[in-house]
Amino acid sequence: FLALKIANVNWQSKLNKAAHHTSDYSSTEIILRRGQAFSITLNFQTAVQPEDNLTFIASTGPSPAESQQTKAIFSISEESASGWSATHEPSEPSCTDLTILSPANAVIGRYKLKLQMVSGNKVSSTLLGQFVLLFNPWCPVNNVPDSHSYRKRREYVLNDSGIIFQGLEKHIQQEAWNYGQFEEGILDISLAILDRSLNHREDPAVDVSNRNDPIYVSRVISAMVNSNDEKGVVEGKWTGKYGSGTNPLQWSGSVTILRKWYRRRYKPVRYGQCWVFAGVMCTVLRCLGIPTRVITNFNSAHDKNVNLSIDKYIDISGKTLDLTEDSVWNFHVWNESWFIRRDLGSFYDGWQVLDATPQEKSKGIYQCGPASTKAIKEGDVNLDYDSSFVFAAVNADCVTWIHHSNKRKERVYSDTRKIGKFISTKAVGTNSRVDVTANYKYPEGSLKERRVYKKALKLLGVRSTGKRTKITRPRRHSSVARGQPAQKPSISGKLILDASPVIGQDILLTLALRNLMGDFKTIKVKLRASAVLYTRKPKAEILQLSRSVKLGSEEAKEISFKISYSQYKNSLMDDRKILVTAVCKSKRGASLLVEKDIVLQDPFLTIKVLGPTVVHKPVNVEVTFTNPLSEVVTDCVLRAEGSGLLKEQLRISVARMAPMESSTVQFEIIPYKSGTRQLQVDLVCIHFSDIKGFVMLDVAPA
Length: 702
Known about the structure:
- The protein is α+β, with helices and mostly antiparallel strands.
- The strands form 10 sheets. The protein has a 6-stranded antiparallel beta sheet with strand order 19-18-17-14-22-23, with helices on both faces. Strands 2-9-8-4-5 form a 5-stranded mixed beta sheet, covered by helices on one side. A 4-stranded antiparallel beta sheet has the order 1-3-7-6, covered by helices on one side.
- Strand 22 and strand 23 form a beta hairpin.
- Helix 3 (186-195) crosses helix 8 (274-288).
- The longest helix has 16 residues, at 447-462.
- It is elongated, with a radius of gyration of 29 Å.
- 43% of the residues are buried.
- It comes from Charadrius vociferus.
- It catalyses: L-glutaminyl-[protein] + L-lysyl-[protein] = [protein]-L-lysyl-N(6)-5-L-glutamyl-[protein] + NH4(+).
- Residues 468-487 are annotated as: Disordered.
- This is protein-glutamine gamma-glutamyltransferase.
């Protein structure tokens, strides 16, 4: 007998990539999705005889084993216990066309495929090649979004750019983000993230065998995207000083961050805040084939001890005091991924919340989720994973106290900022905002909403280590908070912004006060303006004023004041958020707190593409922007990026801009992918926080 020898292997790359929706990956590797057949052609040097026995071995991970589902042995046309199978297609004598099918619950990752041939008494083994196996949202068993789901899969798995909503509930802003999950090297980096996890270091074989489950994989990634615990991808920082790294506001996408982490041998990239963690996690999960989107929750509670009450302390001048670890952020960004919950039951299938921002530890590690949105809506706060923390983020109550002394605190009336408003995500197929608040809670004030809230409180009260102490022990004053509502003041007040302020200009404000009673009173007003982070944590004081206002019976008065550019310019170099508070006090009667969040407007930036965009055809882009300041600005850098348009981030220096001067910069792009593409431009400058813009381009095939 002559031993069978393989002349060559044709992995039918183009055909398989198209069938498996993996044509977009910038990689020469064979990339396939589980639970779906792929074709492979083997050319033998001699014709295969009927009695020749061909057996395939597919294996993944450091120590493949059939018992761990990380190794499969299967023959042609035979059912294998592993769920893998191979079938013969009609073909020429010396050439064998095969169809190989992996099971729908196969472990994902990089595989080797070997062929063992027994021809007479000769046994030979050949490595046919390597392939990467990914999750498969197109597989009927992995049932993803409902019937009209083709567009949803395209959005949540294949779209490599998107919008992350930020700002304030009354002033929601669109920020473009380059996910770039198909860019060169990103798939390798995503697989490397799994291999760097604590679980993998502890027991590589068990870790790899668990990679058939999106619940497991997504939870590991939520831990790995932040640098806490295991030197993950991004290091968080919320202080407002970023000298030793990049200001989180200056990132425009995940590709630069992931490549930096990988190229610098897994050193955490500095710095990120919530939208950066969520953007990076969306890239990695989409890259691995898990449908994922980015969610923004406005007025988001960070409820450290999960008692559904956020206590905030101020002094009599309105200054925020650091007496509690709870906070309400202007917005918080997390992810949702779509998969089924065999661990909880089919009612909880669908969108699952994952949060890579390192806020609180879960089972000893900074990770959060997956928490079913259905569990959050129904108040099932005892269900895995971390549904109580997410429930609090969208449902907690906010209570403000004036701290007079250690012995005396006064619960102060303020028009409570409702927690969990305008929960937002990008629409399928367009950049508009979709409100998904109804996925998280029943209508505010409805009977159902109150029932869910009571159920959650009850579950949180007893959900502890047998002792009813872990969470029910009231925080200092929170028992008072629940029992004694704030006294309603006899005056009302509102802070009104006179115009949309632009960076570089003075900010004009009016405090409108009204006496609600028929008496005469003198109101002492303490006004305060601070530069804040989006977490509402103060970075710097800008202004303090005291005024005395006399109000007659039911009289209304307005106090106008301004915050000049010279007062705020040094505090707002890397951000543009201001919190203004007014504490209003009369001799008798309760105090009133009036608050206003201000985000200074972006100076305008326009992007013009000078010609049609076609794959492999150079085209010029013209960007025009204005120095918003009445002073000379030097050393600015214009940065541009966009998946399918620019392989690396482009940087152009803008040496000098005169006061209020407009500048135009031109650069060339050579698109390398067709379809809808997002080009982002960012003017970075040390004198003011960066000015961003983006444009969507339809790129025609070559």
